[in-house]
Give the backbone structure.
Amino acid sequence: MEFILKEINTANMTSAKAETHRAFNEFLEAIITGKFKSFEVRIKRERKNRSLDANAYFHVLVDKIAKKLSKDGGVISPEEIKVKINLEYGTVAKYGNQDAIITLPKTVWVDEFYHYSKWLRDFEGRDGIEYSQYLFYKRTSTLNTEEMSQLISGAIREAQELGIETATPDELAKMIALWGETTKMEV
């Protein structure tokens, strides 16, 4: 394997980009000179954070669903709908490569700490205390474009099942195309 390191003028780069370039070159130099005996390099596609337009559209759908369901009976807040849709169509939070699962005494109300959690099971611990386990989902503000697209698709399905008018497939395709994608090397 051969690496060619070349000097790039970083004067026109943002400081963050220049620092990333410098750190990457130092990393490659350490590999070439044998300073690292063992290493792992991952390359993955970066997804941009969801756009403000996508976020706004999601909240429009959430509001319409809440209003429609509130007409048919009790009052359901947009926040309740947002949590329900996120738990149904959202993205599981990760801790490293593991799903983010928390165990709490059964007497603790998980919503006091985190709204986007789904109950998994109850069990009795070795200490004789009853516990509940919950799976955490990512907050909508942390979703990338692919995850937000999945969430919006779920909200659209929910809205359509209630007879709520949604954006046309062409409008949605344009919205998704505007989000775009970039690539990033993770070292």
Confidence is low (pLDDT under 50) at residues 180-187.
